[in-house]
Amino acid sequence: MTAPDDAPTSYVGDIEATLSTLAAFNPVILSADVLPSRASQVPQTIDDIYKSHRMSMVRLAILLVDDMGSAEDVVQDAFAGLYRNWGNLRDTQAAVGYLRIAVINGSRSMLRRRRTARAYVPPHELDARSAESMAMMSTEHQSVITALGDLAPRQREVLVLRYYGGLSEAEIAEATGLSTGTVKSTASRAVAKLGDIIRTRHQ
């Protein structure tokens, strides 16, 4: 990922470095890193996936919709869809991929409904996200997470999936319906924009 020519390269590098540590707040990413072969070989039930992935999906949704209650609704709907489609999924990886796409689509729908109702609340209050998750973060992390709320929804999706979800550009493209090239360019612009937002707030 490269920064636009007009972006301060060192500052963008700092933002990327902070973003790259967000995966540490995703327990599913940590579990997969520790036991990758075991995680892929042991058959799992819907209950197993719910227990191991629910909070990760809620945190993902919080980063996309900026509200705990809305995030939990999105994830509940995603798991309901998973239950209905369980027989069509080939393995655990496919099930988790289904959940991720359902959370993204549900978050998009939630944001559209907010815009339609003209009731969207700016996501700058601490209680708009999981207090536990934010408390675990440094001031620098909190600043980056808060600034994510000022990005366009597509930019936010790409950065959250890349840095919190740990997905590759190809995986993000599959999850969001974008081309790989669009994912790459969107991520580059989003990181630069994030840097602009944070720099403006600190002036």
Automatic annotation (TrEMBL):
The keyword DNA-binding applies. CDD domains: Sigma70_r4. One of its GO terms (molecular function) is sigma factor activity. Pfam families: Sigma70_r2, Sigma70_r4_2. GO terms for biological process: DNA-templated transcription initiation. It comes from the Bacteria. Keywords: DNA-binding, Sigma factor, Transcription, Transcription regulation. The keyword Iron does not apply. Residues 148-201 form the HTH luxR-type domain. Belongs to the sigma-70 factor family. ECF subfamily. NCBIfam families: SigE-fam_strep (TIGR02983), sigma70-ECF (TIGR02937). This is SigE family RNA polymerase sigma factor. It comes from Nakamurella antarctica. The lineage of its organism: Bacteria, Bacillati, Actinomycetota, Actinomycetes, Nakamurellales.
